[in-house]
Amino acid sequence: MYKIVITLYIFVTFFYVVFTRQPDYFDSDITYGTIQLKDTAHRFIPFATFHVASDSFSVKASYPLLKLENGERVKIIYNTAKPSNASIYSVWGYWFKWDEILGSILIALVFWGIAVILNKNPAEESLKEQMDRHETTSKRKYD
């Protein structure tokens, strides 16, 4: 049963990730941009600046667990119809986001906890029925 649940979890998570990214992976273009650190409220926050045709766009590039240096060249994925809708194209930050990972793990743990609570103390009739079913199904046909 655990193999089925884990396989289903991976399958659902895969399709969720592929079809919910913004900007959309299938309808977007990829270009390169440069990281610039901007001072906001006495903190330096990285922004990626990129050019499409003659226009310049800037996108916030601060992701947890992703350290970007000033002047670093990064891949950027952007919506061709609206280039201001862009994101850093990396595994951590575009494909995987910490809040989605934590949320999916939390949901899986809640469902596991509910299953444990529901099956922790079965009724005596249920136990007897399960034991009787096990005895009848475990006998060989020609014994």
How would you describe this structure in keywords?
single chain; 143 residues; alpha+beta; 2 domains; 5-stranded antiparallel β-sheet; 3 helices; 39% helix
Q: Topology, please?
A:
Layout: H1 2-20, E1 28-40, E2 43-52, E3 55-60, E4 73-79, E5 86-88, H2 98-120, H3 124-137
Antiparallel strand pairs: 1-2, 1-4, 2-3, 4-5
**Major sheet: size, sense and barrel closure?**
5 strands, antiparallel
Oligomer designation: single chain
Question: What would the average pLDDT be, to the nearest integer?
Answer: 87
How widely separated are the two ends?
30 Å
Question: How many whole angstroms does the radius of gyration measure?
Answer: 25 Å
Proportion of β residues?
25-35%
Task: Give helix % range.
Answer: 25-40%
Low-confidence stretches: none
Structural shape: elongated
| Strand order in the largest sheet | 3-2-1-4-5
Give an overview of the whole structure.
The chain is an alpha+beta fold. It folds into two domains: 21-96; 99-137. The protein is built from three helices and five strands. The protein has helices at residues 2-20, 98-120, 124-137; strands at 28-40, 43-52, 55-60, 73-79, 86-88. Strand 1 and strand 2 form a beta hairpin. The radius of gyration is 25 Å and the shape is elongated. It starts with a helix and ends in a 6-residue tail after the last helix. The chain crosses the membrane at residues 101-118.
